[in-house]
Structures are given as C-alpha cells and as structure tokens.
Design brief:
2 domains, elongated, binds S-adenosylmethionine
C-alpha cells in the first residue's frame, strides 16, 4: 500500500486572492486531505485499541477496517490498491465514521453493518435474522465434495439449517444440474434465504422449506446432506464475545453440550440418503465433545487448505451400520 501523501503544498500567494480562492484555502486548512488508506489505518488502530473480536468474515483489524471503508465509500475491491490513494470527502468520512463507531460501541459484526457477505465468492444479503456465513464447508463445495462423491451422480442435495441460504446456493452453483433443498426452523431466516435464492436466479433449482430438521422433507432422498447446525453448548454460549450476541441464538445454541441438533441429524440422515450418499456436518470446536459422546462412529474429519475445521463426513452405509448406537445417543 502506498503511504498517504503529505498535506497540501500551499504556496505563498503572489497576488491578492479572490474570495472564492480564500475560502477554498481556509477549507483546506480546516480539513486536511484524508485518503482511503488513511481511513483504513485509522480504523485498524481504533479496532485494535478497542479489542474487537474478529471471526465473522475477517480475522484481523486491518481487513475489518478495509471492508467497512470500501463499503462506506462504495469502492470496488477489484480496484484495490489503486484506490488507496484516493482522497475522501467529508460526506464519505462521515459514513466511514458511523460504521467504525457502531463496530466499536455496539460490536456489530461488519457483515451486518454492510448487510453483505461473500460465500464461495457469491454475494449474499445478510442481517441479524441469519448467522454470518463463514463455514469452511464453502471450500468443500468448491471442490464438489471431491474425493468423497462422484459429482456426476449428484442430483439432489439437502442443506439442514440453511440460514442465509449460503450453503444451499453455493451447492446449486457448484452442481448446475442438481436440485437443492435448504431447510430451516426459523421463518425469519427463510425470508433472507429466499431473497438470496432470487438474487442468484436459482428459484427453479433451490427450495427453502420450513422444517424442524428433516420433518418437512418427507420421503425425499438425497445424494448429499450437508449441514452447519447450531453447535454451541450452554457454558460456551455464556462466554462468547459480544459480536456473537448479534447473531440469532437459535443459530448457535444447541443444548447443554452443543450436540442436540447434531444428534438428530446423525440419527435421521441415513433415512434421507441415497445409496452411497454422504453426510457432511460442521461441529466446530464441539468436535471433541462429539467424539467423546459417540466413540463408536467412524468420523472422517476433513481438512481445509484455507483454514477452519471441525467438519466430519460419514457415508450412508456407515450411518446404517451404527443405527443402534445412534438410536440411544
Ligand atoms: C449455524 S446456523 C447455519 C446457517 C447457514 N447454513 C450458514 O452456514 O451460515 C444454523 C441454522 O440452523 C437453524 N436451525 C436451528 N435449529 C434447527 C432445527 N431444529 N431445524 C432446522 N434448522 C434449525 C438456525 O435457524 C440457523 O439458521
């Protein structure tokens, strides 16, 4: 990034200045030139001092500040770094300041301030009705679940707990011939999901259904069931950074050990999977609790090049083989 240029080069006037020139000079003394880069650095400094929590799309103060500055100034990230040296007018600075203030005072995640988030490169509308999309499962969808399933035979996909619709929509984009159902118990979340489905013109292949886990999908069977369910336990819920309190509680909390929702999915998924179908579920840092609770299950824990973890895969056949254990879990 280029360093911001030093403040203006005011030269001593040779002749008497007109009124307009004088007032311009006065203004430029009162409001020093501020560049996009200046605002990004200022935001990063203030965020660091305020000990904000990152983890809703960025992982550091500078990227968080940059996202808000670009959004407030309606800049395109594709134009970076050329726009870093651009000068920002007073109105732009006010818009940036308002976002910085809310980020610091109210601890609102940047995605909610911008009402935007990207998932597998797809722009989604988000607000406090849905979790901020950030699942590492995006990387897996991008790879079309290779090497775990032959992508050519994937015709139907189910996303349990669809929230903003991010996983369902990404699946539909990655598998252009597949039909995708995204289910959620929250009608508020489904409203957001449907907007995003329309936004990506996927209304013919992606359905958003109100359902308590599998309750509304009836006898339908899928090649892939994918889920980022709620998985935070009671104790962890109490200690979450303030940023998480802006997210719907129903998207995070899942009983005493965080595994209530995951247990239902494990018990019921096999009945909704086709032969050789796969189940992929994110449980984040509840991984250890799940392994302890269900030692007999042959979980495959997936690895991600871009970071993140706590995502397991089980085949329908593995689930079937452990039905008895799951029934009493
Ligand atoms: C962790 S969020 C995931 C949202 C989205 N899939 C994502 O990755 O950003 C979990 C979602 O599961 C939904 N949910 C919670 N309990 C549910 C249930 N019993 N049945 C279906 N969905 C449920 C929540 O409303 C929330 O949208």
């Amino acid at each position: 990034m280029s360093k911001p240029r030093a403040r203006s080069q005011v030269t001593k006037p040779r002749a008497r200045k007109s009124r307009a020139t004088r007032s311009r000079a006065t203004r430029s003394r009162a409001t020093p030139r501020v560049s996009v880069a200046d605002l990004m650095h200022e935001g990063a400094r203030r965020f660091t001092r305020a000990h904000l929590f990152y983890g809703h799309g960025t992982d550091n103060a500078f990227d968080e500040a940059a996202a808000l500055v670009f959004h407030a100034l309606r800049l395109d990230h594709a134009d970076a770094p050329a726009v870093y040296a651009k000068s920002v007018d007073a109105a732009g600075r006010r818009r940036v300041e308002e976002l910085f203030e809310r980020r610091i005072r109210e601890r609102v995640p940047a995605a909610y301030l911008m009402k935007r988030m990207w998932f597998m490169g797809l722009e989604l509308e988000v607000d406090e009705r849905v979790l901020v999309p950030r699942s590492p499962i995006a990387e897996l969808i991008e790879r079309r679940f290779a090497p775990w399933i032959d992508a050519r035979r994937v015709a139907n996909i189910l996303d349990v707990g669809t929230g903003s619709g991010c996983i369902a929509i990404a699946c539909a984009v990655a598998f252009p011939d597949a039909h995708v159902d995204g289910v959620d118990i929250s009608t508020a979340a489904l409203t957001v999901a449907r907007r995003n489905i329309r936004r990506h013109h996927l209304g013919r292949r992606v359905r958003a259904l109100r359902s308590d886990h599998f309750a509304a999908v009836g006898g339908r069977r899928y090649d892939v069931i994918v889920s980022n369910p709620p998985y935070v336990g009671t104790t962890e819920m109490r200690s979450l950074p303030r940023e998480y309190r802006h997210e719907p509680r129903i998207a995070l909390a899942s009983g005493q050990d965080g595994l209530d929702s995951v247990r239902v999915i494990l018990r019921e998924a096999a009945a909704h999977l086709r032969a050789a179908g796969i189940l992929v579920v994110e449980v984040g840092n509840s991984q250890r609790a799940l392994e302890r609770a269900l030692r007999a299950l042959p979980f495959t824990w997936l690895e991600f090049a871009r970071g993140g973890g706590g995502v397991f895969l089980l085949t329908r056949e593995q689930l079937r083989a452990h039905e008895a254990v799951l029934a009493v879990s």
